[in-house]
Amino acid sequence: MAYQALGLGTTANDGTGDPLRTGGDKINDNFVEVYTYLGDGSTLSSDPVVTETATQTLTNKTITGTFTGNITGSADTLSTARTIAGQSFDGSANITIASTDLSDTADIVLLTATQTLTNKTITSPELGGTTTTGTGNLVVDPATQIVEIMGDGASVVGQLQLNCHVNTHGQLIASQPHSESATNTLTLPGGTTIGNADATLVSDTGTQTLSNKTLASPTVTGALQLQVYADISARNTAIPSPSAGMMVFLTDNGSATPKAQVYDGSAWVDLH
User: Fold this and answer.
1) Cβ distance 100 to 70 under 8 Å?
2) Which of 30, 43, 185, 242 could form an S-S bond across to 263 if both were Cys, CB 3.0 to 4.6 Å?
3) Contacts with 32 (C-beta within 8 Å, 6 or more apart), sequence order
4) pLDDT tens digits for range 204-218
C-alpha cells in the first residue's frame, strides 16, 4: 500500500480538508502497514532495524545476489548447503578467510576432494593411509610407522632419492623388481649395538677396511693381504690377546727374517 497523506485543506478551517473519519482511516492504514512490515501487524519486533551505513551483526540471514568489493572476517560457518567458486558444501564445513581478498581463480581445499596443491608448505604433518604421488603411491601406515613407496605397476620400482642442497645430484635407493620376490630388511648401522655410532655401510665396489668381522666359508679370489707388523713387539702391541687362527706377517720375526705367522692357540708359529 502506498503512503496516504491527510488532506489538510487550503487554509485552516476552510472546510476543504479530509473529514475527520477519512483522516483517521488514513492514519490507521499507514500504521497498519508500518506494524506489518516491522512486526506482526499489531506488535513491533524487538530486533533492531538494519540500516545501510550502521555497523551491525546479522544472525541467521541468507544473502543472495552478487558481491562487490572485499569479503572481510575471520571465519564463515556454512549452516546450510552453499556453493563458492565451484565448490559445494553440505553445511558441515567451516571456511576460514585468512585475508581480506580472495582470488577469483583460487579453489578452496576440501577434506575429501581430489585436488592438486602447488607451492604449499605443510608444517608438522601427520600422514595416514595412502597418498597418490606421481605414477606410484606413498603409503604411510600409522600403526607400524612404515613408509612404503610403491612402483608404477610396470618396470619402475619404489625408489628414494636423496639429493644435495641444490638438487643437481644425489644418491638413489631402489628396491628389487617384483620378479625377484625379494622380502628382507636392511638395518642401518649405528648406536651401541655395533659399538660405533658413525659406522659406514660396506660397498661391493669401494675400497674399505673391515674390522672385527667373521667371514664364514669365504671364497677369496686374488691375493690375500695379511696385516704387516715390523717385529714381534709391534705385533704384540697391536694384538695383545690373539685368538687361534689369526695370521700376520712380520718384517722381522726376531732373527731379522720376514715370516708369515699363525696363532695356534698358545703361540705364534712361523708358516715357512
Assistant:
1) yes
2) 242
3) 41
4) 888 888 877 888 888
